[in-house]
Amino acid sequence: MKTGLVTGAASGLGFEFSNLLAQDSFDLVLVDVDEPKLMAVKQKIQDTYQVKVYPIICDLKQPGCIDLIYEQIKDRNIDVLINNAGFGLYGFFSETAWELEESMIYMHILTMTHLTKLILKDMIKMKSGKILNVCSVAAFQPGPLMAVYYATKAYILSFSEALANEVKGTGVTVTVLCPGQTKTNFQKTTAKNSKEKLSRAGFLSPADPVKVALYGYNDMLSGYTKSVPGLINKFLVLVSRITPNRFSVPLIRKIQVQIRK
Ligand SMILES: NC(=O)c1ccc[n+]([C@@H]2O[C@H](COP(=O)([O-])OP(=O)(O)OC[C@H]3O[C@@H](n4cnc5c(N)ncnc54)[C@H](OP(=O)(O)O)[C@@H]3O)[C@@H](O)[C@H]2O)c1
């Protein structure tokens, strides 16, 4: 039996990835900070699929959390690692809460990098394994009013693409999924973390998390490096690749300002 590990598995995309792995008969190690929600997910998956689910309740913004997770999984082969946990924060950097930004940098960058290092070493020894890092279209340009979020996602994109190249020929692949706005709890959490009242960005309706997760999951199974679900997101990525930042950054600011109610 193969095993998949998903962070932020109790809701949104993480929950969908967990279902996809279970459908493919993977046993699951599911990590989340929310104990009741994670235990409900464990029950739901076990009731639906013939797989084992090992929940790990863990706050991924706490120092030492990765050692704690690795201690619990080190005797088990992890065949798929999905670094998915993440959250948003909106507002001018001079006004947002440092504690949240520190947590975001810790979770999106340090935790993700550390867990990847430990599990990648084991995967290389096994000569097989798949890693999927959940990033965002936000990774492709700086984002005023979500400056730290965009910057952490740029790190995830750069790190993942570099790693995908390093592991060529080892039997391991690294894929980076870059979704646009998706209908999960992400917007609610971002609004809760922010001082301002937020609506969703006016002109785009959020994508279905089931479809976004399936797109990224399939690209991970195919071993593609970059996965951008949806034609509009592909177009946005292309535009941000060819547009100088002096034009794109003011435009992103205009779009971000619209998110305010
Ligand atoms: N939804 C979008 O529009 C969108 C777009 C682009 C990229 N993304 C990325 O997609 C990923 C998944 O987000 P989502 O949209 O599925 O949002 P979500 O529904 O809020 O799911 C995030 C999950 O991560 C968990 N989590 C948050 N902080 C944690 C911590 N400190 N320790 C452990 N688990 C923690 C959350 O638990 P709680 O519920 O307890 O907080 C939640 O279960 C994120 O990396 C996000 O940046 C989302």
Overall radius of gyration = 18 Å
Order of helices and strands: EHEHEHEHEHEHHEHH
On the 0-100 scale, what is the average pLDDT? 95
Strand order across the largest sheet: 3-2-1-4-5-6-7
CATH third-tier fold name: Rossmann fold
Q: What oligomeric state best describes the polypeptide chains here?
A: single chain
| Total count of strands | 7
Structural notes for this entry:
This protein is α/β, with parallel strands linked by helices. It has one domain: NAD(P)-binding Rossmann-like Domain (Rossmann fold). It is about 50% helix and about 15% strand. The chain has helices at about 10-25, 35-50, 65-75, 100-125, 145-165, 185-195, 210-220, 230-240, 245-260; strands spanning about 5, 25-30, 55, 80-85, 130-135, 170-175, 225. Strand 2 (about 25-30), helix 2 (about 35-50) and strand 3 (about 55) form a beta-alpha-beta unit. Helix 1 packs across helix 7 (about 210-220), helix 3 (about 65-75) runs parallel beside helix 4 (about 100-125) and helix 4 (about 100-125) runs parallel beside helix 5. The longest helix is centred in the middle third of the chain and has 29 residues, at about 100-125. The chain starts with a strand and ends with a helix. NADP nicotinamide-adenine-dinucleotide phosphate binds next to helix 1 and helix 6.
